[in-house]
Design goal:
Number of strands: 13
Largest sheet: 4 strands, antiparallel
Helix content: 10-25%
Strand content: 15-25%
Strand order of the largest sheet: 4-1-12-11
Low-confidence stretches: 3-14
CATH class of the largest domain: Mainly Beta
Distance between the termini: 47 Å
Mean pLDDT: 90
Structural class: alpha+beta
Radius of gyration: 22 Å
Number of domains: 2
Order of helices and strands: HEEEEEEEEEEEEEHHHH
Number of helices: 5
CATH architecture of the largest domain: Sandwich
Length: 248
């Protein structure tokens, strides 16, 4: 089906979609549902922080990439996907900061069940973040041309490149936008205060319908605790690391 869409779009999106091909190929598949479809950059970027492992001895973790799907036919055998780092867009060093996994399209399947990269907590993360840009490239198993990052039919982001930025420090959690209408702008001190009051960190994982139903209650509890803290510490109100004010 995607091959038909690509062929129909080629005439008007030559910079994003390769010429029609009868060779099997692979691409990153990201649903556009509930996403800003005018932004074709954000879907192909991810962030990760070892801070949220809450374990200073944890020296590695797997970052799961978007699903990798095929254009073409299934096979009766597993087929390896060629995923490489793009040096010009990468500050991480293979072997020291990350390890590429042997990702495959399983036999009789149109997609990977999981595709990942092992991120390593190296000394390079001590005072800076690292960037790793990976790209799907043609191979013996998938010789067809790759799809450049683009939006197709307003329903799917498809592409061949994905960038991960990772760090040791606290960063805005990946699903903060799901709670930002209640808690506004993210900040490290603010976030830690919320976690202390609520007994958990919000938005590290997708916000469920059950959790969403409690967000107003969470806000009331946090605001009350925030007001009580500032009232008890009038000379040292709660502020962010840079001195900026915190609000709920």
């Amino acid at each position: 089906m995607l091959a038909v869409i690509l062929a129909s779009l080629y005439s008007c999106k030559k910079e994003s979609v390769p010429p029609p091909s009868y060779q099997d190929a692979v691409y990153f598949y990201i649903s556009a549902v509930n996403r800003n479809t005018s932004d074709t950059i954000a879907p192909f970027n991810g962030t990760y922080s070892f801070y949220y492992k809450f374990d200073s001895t944890a020296m590695l973790d797997t970052f799961w990439l978007p699903a990798i799907r095929i254009v073409g036919n299934t096979s009766t055998q597993d087929r390896a996907v060629k995923l490489v780092a793009i040096d010009s867009a990468t500050t991480a060093v293979e072997g020291r900061d990350y390890t590429l996994l042997n990702n495959v399209i399983p036999a009789d399947s149109f997609a990977t069940s999981k595709a990942g990269i092992v991120l390593l907590r190296s000394k390079a993360l001590a005072d800076s973040s690292l960037r790793l840009t990976v790209q799907l490239q043609p191979s013996d198993a998938f010789p067809g041309p790759m799809i450049y990052n683009t939006l197709i039919e307003q329903t799917v982001f498809a592409g061949n490149t994905f960038t991960i930025t990772y760090t040791n420090n606290a960063i805005e959690p990946p699903y903060w936008s799901s709670v930002s209408s209640y808690f506004y702008q993210w900040g490290r001190v603010k976030y830690e205060f919320m976690a202390k009051v609520l007994g958990k960190y919000l938005a590290l994982t997708p916000v469920t319908a059950e959790e969403a139903s409690h967000l107003f209650d969470y806000l009331v509890r946090v605001k009350q605790a925030f007001q009580e803290y500032n009232a008890a510490n009038p000379d040292k109100p709660l502020v962010e690391d840079d001195g900026s004010s915190i609000s709920f």
